[in-house]
Amino acid sequence: MDSRAILFFAFRFWPGFSKLWLKGDFHSLMVSVLFSWVWVATCLATFVWPEWLISNLSPVWLSKAALVLLWIGVFSASLLSAFAAIPSTANPSSLGTAATQENLVNAQELYLQANYFDAERLIRKNLSGQADDIESALLWIAILRRTRRIPQALELISNVVKMDVALPWMAELRSEKEQCLRIKIQTPPAHD
């Protein structure tokens, strides 16, 4: 196991961090920062300034109980975060349904046979059920480019780029956009 994988596994215990790392999600950033503040405050109240909590809460047992509750909260949040970061095989939205995967494979075969319109029909079916299916969206963009429907392809690219799931596919999306723009420049304008 390489050091990056070990580091990623360790940070699964940091609430919000794994989603922040994978998707760059703003909400996860806020959760991660909030957790870090609570973590630092708990460590300071335990190891550096134990009197800080004692002086703010009059009975000593109440301050100790508050400290124990803080630690329990920190560890509970860590464990919940670690379990939430494990990919679920029972979650069809993360893996796609069998029908969606079958449609995608069939659409890829049709695309390779230059049967673009039947491939597009299958891709549209996938995207109507699951709008964040990035693989289907990328294939649809390629179909639109091949059939010279450049404005629709560019519009779809601009919509897909805004999705969180598109982050790992940015290089491919950039390449598709460049190809579409190249075709748009090379194509003479239609005369009315």
Secondary structure elements and pairings:
Layout: H1 3-10, H2 17-23, H3 26-48, H4 50-56, H5 60-85, H6 92-95, H7 98-112, H8 116-129, H9 134-146, H10 150-161, H11 170-186
Query: How many structural domains in the coordinates?
Result: 2
Q: Unreliable runs, pLDDT <50, ≥5 residues?
A: 88-95
Give the class from helix and strand content and strand pairing. mainly alpha
CATH class of the largest domain: Mainly Alpha
How many extended strands?
Answer: 0
Number of helices: 11
Protein model, in words:
This protein is mainly alpha-helical and 192 residues long. It folds into two domains: 3-85, no CATH class; 92-186, Alpha Horseshoe (Serine Threonine Protein Phosphatase 5, Tetratricopeptide repeat). The protein is 76% helix and 0% strand. It contains eleven helices and no strands. It has helices at 3-10, 17-23, 26-48, 50-56, 60-85, 92-95, 98-112, 116-129, 134-146, 150-161, 170-186. The protein is elongated. It starts with a helix and ends in a 6-residue tail after the last helix. The relative contact order is 0.07. Residues 88-95 have low confidence and may be disordered.
